[in-house]
Amino acid sequence: MMSGRALLLRSAPWLACLGLLGVWQIGALILNTDSFPTAWEAARAIPSILGDKESLINILASLRRMAVGFSIGVVFSIPLGLMMGRSRGVASFFNPLLMVIYPVPKAALMPIIMLWLGVGDVAKTLVIFLGVSLPVIYHSFQGAKAVEEKMLWSGAAMGLSAAQRMIRIVLPAALPEILTGCRTGLVLALITMVTSEMIARQSGAGNILFNALDMGQYDTVYAMIIIIGAMGIGLDAAFENIRARLVKWSEPGFDIPLSFA
Amino acid sequence: MKLVPSRPEVEAKAAPARQPAAAMIEIDRVSQVFRTSGRQDHLALSEISLTIEDGAFVSILGPSGCGKSTLLYIVGGFVSPTGGVARVKGRAITGPGPDRGPVFQEFALFPWKSVLGNVMYGPRQQGVKPTEAEAQSRALIEMVGLKGFENFYPKELSGGMKQRVALARTLAYHPAVLLMDEPFGALDAHTRTRLQNDLLNIWERDRKTVLFVTHSVEEAVYLSDKVVVMTRSPGRIKEIIDIDLPRPRRRTELLLDPRYQKYLVDIERMFDDTGEDELRP
Asked: Mutating which of A88, A152, A158 best tests the B interface, going by the most B Cβ atoms within 10 A?
């Protein structure tokens, strides 16, 4: 049996959500304009979107692009970040490049990318890839840089080659930091996914949202925002769950729920 | 050695035992210059020559910044000397190898591995079968007094326990030489004493060659066959003192032993003579 305090801590995130919906509902009732439906009206529109085959295909296409962009981004960025963290030469070559790319909103590159690659999956996946890469590179870089030299020496004395030290010492030692970067990358993947679909309308969750906006279907607009938000929360919670398992060895005891996981 | 009271009966007894023991480590006019941007180059070690016999417990004693750890890193192959050559078993040292096992003050355990995982790491790397490596590692963990902690992670252990794991992890791949870099420097006095006693007990079993870096005079005299006293700026060997105290050593007996006390006083005086202190540039 959970104590009252523990129960309160467990339910705090849900209470926060209910509170937000309550404020929305009351705010919409007071303002009473077409462009701001109540929370209840928006929620009522959700089943009709999720029940529609066309909409579901759109949303799944978005998720597929996001998964592909995120995966390629992670597979590319972790080795690059780790090498930058362990080699001054690699770091001084890539660091200036990344500093230039970092502040540029990746969606702002979308028109140029569309010019080269068209408006299809490739262009959108590339933008997602760019959005994911930077935080993952940066955190992998920081994680690898912070690996204790003596830990690598201990490995070298056991006979590990430079490549083995990279994979078997630097990678696991930097994993907590890498996964923090991946978590940020996942959220950015969702954001760039939606913005890319805003610019290149063809399919996807963003496409439904912005088409509804053009047609003045505000309950659908808000319902899509709820759906995309819920996807973000769900993905983040799932990722946090995996992350916590992988790096249990590095976590200090901390039992305040930081997410919905 | 002028510092050690001449005691003919000891020398007579010691002489026949001192056969030309095989040199495990030879340090031949090793120098180390650290190039620092802006400031002038820093000569950390100046033409150090030292021979360490197989099975000897040798301490390098000196103030901070005398280059004693650097010397140990050179023997470990982690740092290349800018001058001279270091050899192990007659072969020039070009890099780290499993014949020289380091134990660092910072422990440097693999935090993602359990105690057992850490200790098994070396044997597994050397291709020992998992079941065999595990059995050996469990025995070692028991030897360093950590039975029951096999599945703990390093973050769950105290400093003393971490250093016990680090020692077991290094012993697990059977290095011919133990390189100990101020291993008990980060521990409280009580834990430090217990680990010194346990280290001596473990060492008595197979008498590996040990190179032990410390800045504690008591620790050096208590543990060693030989104490190499270094001075700083630049790092040089000031004296090499043979510690002629019976083994196995018992701390409680040594504390009352006038010979032990004399070694301590003689070495302390050497630091007074040179006016060594932490504040010198």
From this structure: A158
